[in-house]
Amino acid sequence: MGMTEKVWGALTAMIKLEDKVNRQAEAMKQQQQKIEDLTGRVIRLEAQLELLTAAALTRRLK
């Protein structure tokens, strides 16, 4: 009986661990998507800043 309980306990622990790994993998995918979205936003903001800076310099020169 003791050996069966140990094997069952090991299998249960392995299943729980697999579930945790799967949840972490899903959380990482979501975080990566958020990072990519933020990166896109920063790129757009940088482009706007460069355009506005160039426009301000052009106005100053006139």
Helix content: over 70%
Largest sheet: none
Would you list the SSEs in sequence order as H and E?
A: H
Shape, principal axes of CA atoms? rod-shaped
Mean pLDDT: 94
Tally of helical runs: 1
Gyration radius over CA: 27 Å
Cα distance spanning the termini: 92 Å
Given as residue ranges, the uncertain stretches (5+ residues, pLDDT < 50) are none
Structural class determined from secondary elements: mainly alpha
Strand content: under 5%
Q: Give the beta-strand count.
A: 0
Folded structure, characterized:
It is a single chain. The chain is rod-shaped and about 90 Å long. It has one helix spanning 2-61. The longest helix has 60 residues, at 2-61. It has one helix and no strands. It is 97% helix and 0% strand. The chain is mostly helical and 62 residues long. The termini are far apart. The mean pLDDT is 94.
Short summary:
The protein has 62 residues and is an all-alpha fold.
How would you summarize the topology of this molecule?
Elements (H helix, E strand, L loop, with lengths): L1 H60 L1
Quickly list its features:
62 residues, mainly alpha, 1 helix, 97% helix
